[in-house]
Amino acid sequence: MTPKQRDLIADLHMKICRMDIYYHLLQRKMNELSESIDNTVIMDKHEFTVDEINRLISFNQRLTELELYLYDLGYKESTQLAARVSDPDDPLDDYEIETTLYFILGEDDPDFDEDEDNFLTQRHISLKRIDREYGLGDEVDHREPYRNFPEGLKEVRNCWLFYDLYTNSRGLEQPSITLRDCLRVDSIWADVAVHHQATLDIKTGKWIQPTGVQK
Q1: C-alpha span between 54 and 153 (Å, rounded)
Q2: Which helix or strand (DSSP H or E) is residue 95 part of?
Q3: C-alpha atoms less than 13 angstroms from C-alpha of 100 in its C-beta half-sphere
Q4: Whole-angstrom distance, CA of residue 153 vs CA of residue 139
Q5: Which label site among 94, 149, 167, 201 has the fewest CB atoms less than 10 Å from its CB?
Q6: What's the pLDDT tens digit per position in 78-91?
Q7: Distance CA 201, CA 208 (A)
């Protein structure tokens, strides 16, 4: 073994040891965060008034209705566009249907700023060929037994979108929000975009299909 190889092995060993230390440190932090979240969930049972619980139930219902609207819209658009993709006389070779949901603060909210967008969170969702078995419009009850929600709320079915809001965080633009923050949502702006995709061959002037696409 050369001195250079020995130094490389020693350096690698040191880095592995550091990674092991960082791993255990992160694991401890995750456990502490998990305990903190669990405590917050337990506290939820006692920190809402009857009126607030009713508003949360209504919020869940509005999200359920929004899901069904978006699902029907995605199904209708997908059916029409898929037929065009299959048509050999139509240059369309693919498409995307996407929606961004913006959950907006009310003007009476302490954090409302008339010079800002006032988005509490967002959700980016594909409406292309939606899988009805899980996700948007699946009509499944997404309640989780371990979440000690307040009486009244824990007796109603949770739609997927409501569940996704308080459970999943996807970066800075799409953070999860607490039940308390759900009460701050005054409106939801649904921005739906349909993208038509086709490829033009400059030499022939004809529309071409990607490799593997059959019409």
Answers
A1: 8
A2: strand 94-105
A3: 9
A4: 17
A5: 201
A6: 999 999 999 988 99
A7: 6
